[in-house]
Amino acid sequence: MIEEKIICIGCPLGCETTLKIDDQGEGVKVIGYKCKEGRQYVLEEYKRPVRVLTATVLTEKSSRPLFPVRTNRPLLKMQIKEAAKALSKVKVKPPIRIGQIILSNIMNTGVDVVATDDLLN
User: What confidence category does residue 25 fall into, taking pLDDT thresholds of 50, 70 and 90?
Assistant: First the structure.
C-alpha cells in the first residue's frame, strides 16, 4: 500500500490529508479533507502536480536590475526547475506593461511568461 501525506490548498483550511492507494493502484482513499474541493485537489496533486512559476528576470537600460514575471498558467511541477533556468537567460528592457508576454511558449509547453508590473524606465 502506498500512503502519502499531502497538505490541501484547495481552500483556506489547509487540511492535512492522507492519500492511500492499494498495491494494484486501483483502490484510492483520501482521508482528512474538509471541503468538497479537497478530495479532487489531493488526487490531482498526486497524479499531476502543477505550479505557477513566479520569478524575476534581468533588465537592461533600466533603473531596476530585476523585473517580476510569472507564468500565465501552471506548469508541471517537474518542469519548474528547467523553466527557471530558461528565465535566467532572459533580459528585458523598457517599456513593458503589466500582462505583456515576456517569453512566449516557454519550453514548448504552450505556457507564456508575462510581466507582473510595469517597467517604464
Answer: low
User: 89 — alpha (psi -120 to 50), left (phi > 0) or beta?
Assistant: alpha
14 conformational bin, left if phi > 0, alpha if psi -120 to 50, beta if neither: left
Higher per-residue confidence, 75 vs 2: 75
Distance CA 121, CA 63 (A): 6
Q: Which of 95, 99, 102 is nearest to 56 (CA)?
A: 102
DSSP 12: T
| CA dist., res. 100 & res. 70, Å (int) | 11
- Looking at 3.30.360.10, 3.10.530.10, 3.40.30.10, 2.40.40.10, the CATH number of the domain 54-115 comes to 3.10.530.10
Cell matching residue 52: 505557477
User: Is the pLDDT reported for residue 95 higher than 90?
Assistant: yes
